[in-house]
Structure formats: C-alpha cells, structure tokens
Design brief:
single chain; alpha+beta; Immunoglobulin-like; 2 domains; 5-stranded antiparallel β-sheet; 4 helices; 11 strands
C-alpha cells in the first residue's frame, strides 16, 4: 500500500480553506506541518507520543465504518482499560462507531457506550480536571493526577488484597476506594527515610472495594506529588551501609 504523506495533499491550500471558514478549527497531525496535536490510531503506544495533549483513536470493533460482518466488538472492560491507559499517558480517546444507514447505532455499540458512560459517571472526579499519571516504574497500572498535584487516582484492573505503589515520598493523608466509598489502610515496607528514599506502600482492599469493570482508588497526599526520581536510584546501596 502506498502511504501518502501530508505534503501530497496540497496541505497549504487545505489549511487556508479550513482557516477561512473556521478560524478556531483544531487540526490533527495528518495535515502535515499544520497539526495542532498528534494521534495514534488503532494502537495503544507503549509511551506518550507527545509532551502536549495528544489523541488515541480506536474503534468499537475492527472497522472504521459500518460493517455488517464485523461482530468483533470489544467488551466494556477492554474499552475502559484502553481509555484509562490512554489518559494515564495524557491522551484524549476518540472512539469510532459505524452507524446504520438510518443513523442508528448497532445495539452492541449502543450498549457499550451506555456502560462506558455509566462507569465514567461513577468516577468522574478521576476523569475530568486530571492530568497524566505515574509511569509504570511507580505503579503497575493506570493513574491520573489532579491539577493541583495533591490527589492521585489509581486504576486497578484486577482483584488483589493488596496494591503496591513505589517511589512516592509523600505522606498519604487518606486513601479511599471510590468504588465502595470505604477508607483503606496502607503500610510501608523498606525505604531509607534518612536518605529521603521511600519504601513500598501497600494498600489493602477487601472484596467490596472492587468494581467489576475497573476499580478506582483516591490517594490524598500531604502536598504536591513528590517522586523519587529514576536518576537517584544509584545513590544508595550496599556501599552506603
């Protein structure tokens, strides 16, 4: 397949036409040289593709438009996982749906949209007015941070009696399961407080704390998030004891 780059699309002319009719238009990176943001389509990147806002684009099944033979619809757990992984990396997510010729949605897609909307509604405080979360080095799951950087939200995809986070120097004032509303206990193992090196924090959950789709934990910190930086890792070891 021949890949046609933006410069073969008369991008200057296209950009002029767009700006003439809609000066406030937001343009993605396909208009080579004029994009306001980058996109990743049908693939979840292994890391953020931009330090600025970017967009992750995916479909409910495997087709961009309506395809009566494509019944490979994703489950709500898959869609929520892709969504939370995307916002963890600072992206917006765009879902593509192929409607019928009369404009109605396939029932599978309509049901999925309703379930996704219900889940987002339950955990809206972790979705809106939040920004990119922790790198995998700190938490093996999804996460986002409030704009004031004092509240961390963790997305827990499975079930475990303890969830671990690493490298967070802050004292945690309160941990709540937004799924159950219950305040959770945590403990710390290891670390070197005299060298400002935090230990591993273990958050304890019971069965009622989990959401069947994706559990959300709220961590209220004693100040702005303070992380043990990767470049500091070699500064304490056996030679310092």
């Amino acid at each position: 397949m021949l890949y046609r780059r933006g410069y073969s699309w008369e991008v200057d002319k296209a950009h002029s036409i767009i700006m003439k009719h809609q000066p406030q238009a937001v343009i993605n990176g396909r208009l080579d040289g004029y994009g306001d943001f980058l996109t990743a389509e049908q693939r979840l990147p292994l890391q953020p593709i931009s330090d600025e806002v970017w967009e992750y684009v995916h479909t409910f099944n495997e087709s961009w438009g309506f395809n009566p033979n494509d019944k490979n619809f994703k489950t709500v757990k898959q869609v929520v996982r892709l969504f939370t992984e995307a916002i963890t990396m600072g992206a917006n997510m765009l879902l593509g749906i192929g409607p019928y010729e009369n404009g109605k949605l396939p029932p599978e897609a309509e049901s999925m949209m309703e379930q996704l909307g219900d889940w987002i509604g339950r955990y809206s405080e972790a979705i809106y007015e939040t920004e990119r979360g922790l790198a995998p080095n700190y938490f093996r799951g999804g996460s986002v941070l409030s704009y004031d950087k004092k509240t961390l939200y963790l997305f827990v995809y499975g079930r475990s009696d303890a969830v671990m986070i690493n490298g967070i120097r802050n004292k945690i004032n309160r941990i709540t399961s937004l799924s159950s509303g219950r305040e959770l206990e945590y403990s710390i193992t290891g670390g070197a407080p005299w060298a400002n090196i935090p230990g591993c924090k273990w958050i304890y959950l019971v069965e009622s704390d989990f959401d069947d789709i994706c559990t959300v934990l709220k961590l209220e910190l004693d100040g702005e998030l303070d992380l043990w930086q990767i470049e500091d890792h070699g500064h304490f070891g056996a030679q310092d004891r």
